[in-house]
Specification:
This protein is α+β, with helices and mostly antiparallel strands. It contains five helices and 15 strands. The strands form two sheets. Strands 2, 3, 4, 5, 6, 7, 10, 11, 12, 13, 14 and 15 form a twelve-stranded mixed sheet that branches. A hairpin with a 2-residue loop joins strand 8 (about 130) and strand 9. The chain is globular, with a radius of gyration of 19 Å. Bound molecules: 2-acetamido-2-deoxy-beta-D-glucopyranose (6 copies) and zinc ion (ZN). The site of one 2-acetamido-2-deoxy-beta-D-glucopyranose has 5 residues, from loops.
């Protein structure tokens, strides 16, 4: 009898808790970021939150920040599906794609990447800023410790359970270089996922390496922080690369003019980033002699 009522109570909590704490948003004052801690996302007002402004002159030299080892980042069948979540555009990855090295404690499985943006190329919307500069867009590759078997619920219980790789995206200089075909290809799917909840398969042909074009992945900033969306767990080893991915202006504009926060009569998804949080200790590679 006691067991039964406990079981019932537990079931009740499990069903109620997600509904109570899931409602969050970027813009509506009733659920925007100032309210995240009040909505039950208790970690969101912690002391080690992301994103941050990186002050390059204050980044401490750390010679342990060695190159990464990327496995299967060159695989042209790595990208599985692309989805409109209502908060972002997310690409899920097949298994067998990993990252290690880079002073990470173990191998991490690359699970997905998603993007943050403002309102077209005119209104930048990266999450991190560098010396106060906000870039047009930011790509996050989310990785979890291999020992967690791709279970992010488990990963966020460990202070280094997740590793996020952050890449800034900006407009390429006029006439200097060619638009990466990989980005043209990826964004061709946006018209198939204009409404929240829509998801389509990605045809093999583009790799993560193709999308990370032009970035010297040996040069990066490192700090310990959090998820930038609720529940904001402080479980993320952040790597913010110094070089940017360069795409055309019209490609940046596509995001804020194609995908919507809900159905076809809802607004376009714009300014999908969290504001800057309290400064953290940031490290980087020592300058070359
Ligand atoms: C964090 O948010 C909770 C819930 O609103 C509140 O009780 C607590 O005082 C806040 N802590 C800080 C440091 O602001
Ligand atoms: C890389 O991915 C392929 C399939 O795309 C898989 O067969 C292979 O095992 C992966 N490599 C590693 C080292 O996991
Ligand atoms: C985004 O930009 C478009 C075009 O410039 C403008 O019409 C719209 O009002 C902007 N949206 C927001 C939320 O600022
Ligand atoms: C993930 O880990 C949590 C916490 O240990 C566990 O409750 C849950 O069942 C796991 N999920 C899956 C899909 O294995
Ligand atoms: C680009 O994307 C389309 C689907 O939108 C796909 O059919 C095509 O094979 C892709 N091309 C390359 C080179 O990956
Ligand atoms: C579309 O979404 C809006 C909220 O953005 C909602 O008010 C409206 O009822 C929805 N319409 C349909 C047909 O689902
Ligand atoms: Zn993100």
């Amino acid at each position: 009898m006691v067991m039964n009522s406990l079981t019932v109570a537990a079931l009740f909590l499990c069903f109620l808790a997600p509904a109570d704490t899931d409602a969050w948003c970027y813009h509506d004052p009733s659920c925007s970021e100032a309210t995240w801690p009040l909505l039950g996302h208790n970690y969101c007002n912690g002391t080690q939150q992301s994103p941050i402004d990186i002050v390059s002159a204050h980044a401490d030299d750390d010679s342990d920040l060695m190159p990464f080892i990327f496995v299967n980042y060159s695989s042209t069948s790595a990208l599985k599906t692309i989805e409109n979540s209502g908060m972002t555009v997310k690409v899920s990855l097949h298994s067998g794609i990993t990252v290690s090295g880079g002073d990470l404690s173990e191998t991490y499985d690359s699970l997905q990447f998603h993007l943050h943006w403002g309102n077209g190329s005119a209104v930048p919307g990266s999450e991190h800023t560098v010396d106060g500069k906000r870039y047009p867009m930011e790509l996050h590759i989310v990785n979890s410790e291999s020992s967690c078997n791709r279970n992010t619920t488990l990963a966020v219980e460990d202070s280094t359970g997740l590793a996020a790789l952050a890449f800034f995206i900006e407009e390429m200089p006029d006439g200097v270089s060619q638009e990466p075909a990989s980005w043209r290809n990826l964004t061709s799917y946006l018209t198939s996922i204009t409404n929240s909840g829509e998801s389509v398969s990605i045809t093999p042909g583009i790799s993560l390496d193709d999308l990370l074009v032009g970035v010297d992945r040996r040069k990066y900033y490192r700090y310990l922080g959090s998820l930038t969306t609720p529940p904001c767990n402080e479980a993320v080893v952040w790597t913010v690369f110094k070089d940017t991915i360069k795409v055309s202006k019209d490609l940046i504009d596509l995001f804020s003019t194609t995908v919507r926060v809900s159905n076809s009569s809802s607004p376009f998804m714009v300014n999908v980033y969290r504001n800057i949080q309290a400064a953290q200790e940031v490290k980087t590679q020592p300058a070359e002699p």
